[in-house]
């Protein structure tokens, strides 16, 4: 499926709130620009009427205009390859594409060829998730990665010693991309499935659940994640803003999860919860 790029001209003080508004309607990739922001969503989700209604609500703060552009998958791939720079997370984890040279003196070397999938480590939420993973014991654990994107978190779990890993995403090209990345990283044992939370309904419990998705999906699915966690197991989540943390915590608490820790970066959050005995 192709993507729609929405380029919005807006005052800097409105960029965060417009990002938050659009993220509630299926936009999952954003980039600040000198004149405002660019937001991306799939072609089936894009609604010109919705974008117009959002901008009309905030137009008193400045002159808001937008343009759209259809982004085809093969063009997106080329852009990724041109712009994807190697990344070092926590001084121990390198994230790079296969065309970058292998770094020296890093403990974990992850190769990601992202194509159209979300999750290269460059977005704050992916970086925060990996930083949290580095604090959780994965050795011989059973791990679930919901909304796996490129498979980067499942691959990190593999490199941290997880024994059994299931990765799930709703997009078929993402599933294909995650399988390719798992194989490139010698983590071919990662099981990648197409689907949503229903895919795990019959699974045995997990020691660790990872979910880097968005606020609304998390609020809907946290109870299902909790049901699939062993007592004492961990849920590590991201994809929401600091102002949503209290709501996420309330949902987690109602699902027998105890708040453990939180990391933030540029107003994005990754939180860790543990399953009560």
UniProtKB/TrEMBL annotation:
Pfam families reported for this sequence: PrmA
Cited Gene3D superfamilies: Vaccinia Virus protein VP39
Keywords, ordered alphabetically: Cytoplasm, Methyltransferase, Ribonucleoprotein, Ribosomal protein, S-adenosyl-L-methionine, Transferase
Ranges in a coiled coil: none
Enzyme superclass (EC): transferase
Membrane-spanning ranges: none
Catalytic activity, reaction form: L-lysyl-[protein] + 3 S-adenosyl-L-methionine = N(6),N(6),N(6)-trimethyl-L-lysyl-[protein] + 3 S-adenosyl-L-homocysteine + 3 H(+)
Gene Ontology CC terms: cytoplasm; ribosome
GO MF, one annotated term: protein-lysine N-methyltransferase activity
Record-listed S-adenosyl-L-methionine binding positions: 126, 147, 169, 212
Subcellular location: Cytoplasm
One of the protein's GO biological processes: methylation
EC id: 2.1.1.-
HAMAP family: Methyltr_PrmA (MF_00735)
Role: Methylates ribosomal protein L11.
Family that this chain belongs to: Belongs to the methyltransferase superfamily. PrmA family.
Protein name (record): Ribosomal protein L11 methyltransferase
Lineage: Bacteria, Pseudomonadati, Bacteroidota, Cytophagia, Cytophagales
Gene transcribed to yield this protein: prmA
């Amino acid at each position: 499926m192709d993507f729609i790029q929405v380029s919005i001209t807006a005052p800097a003080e409105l960029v965060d709130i417009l990002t938050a508004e659009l993220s509630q309607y299926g936009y999952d990739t954003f980039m600040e620009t000198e004149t405002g922001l660019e937001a991306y969503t799939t072609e089936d989700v894009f609604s010109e009427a919705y974008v117009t209604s959002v901008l009309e609500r905030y137009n008193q703060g400045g002159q808001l205009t937008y343009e759209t552009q259809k982004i085809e998958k093969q063009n997106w791939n080329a852009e990724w390859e041109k712009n994807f720079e190697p990344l070092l997370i926590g001084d121990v984890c390198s994230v790079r594409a296969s065309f970058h040279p292998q770094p020296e003196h890093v403990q974990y070397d992850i190769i990601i060829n992202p194509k159209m999938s979300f999750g290269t480590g460059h977005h704050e939420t992916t970086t925060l998730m990996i930083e949290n993973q580095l604090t959780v014991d994965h050795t011989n654990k059973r791990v679930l990665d919901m909304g796996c994107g490129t498979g980067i978190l499942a691959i990190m779990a593999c490199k941290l010693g997880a024994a059994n890993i299931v990765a799930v995403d709703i997009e078929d090209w993402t599933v294909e991309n995650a399988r390719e990345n798992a194989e490139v990283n010698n983590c071919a044992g990662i099981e990648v499935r197409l689907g949503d939370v229903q895919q795990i309904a019959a699974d045995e419990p997990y020691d660790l659940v990872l979910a880097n998705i968005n606020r609304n999906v998390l609020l809907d699915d946290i109870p299902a994640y909790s049901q699939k966690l062993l007592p004492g197991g961990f849920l590590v989540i991201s994809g929401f803003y600091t102002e949503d943390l209290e709501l996420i915590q309330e949902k987690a608490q109602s699902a027998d999860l105890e708040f453990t820790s939180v990391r933030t970066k540029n107003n994005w959050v990754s939180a860790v919860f543990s399953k009560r005995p």
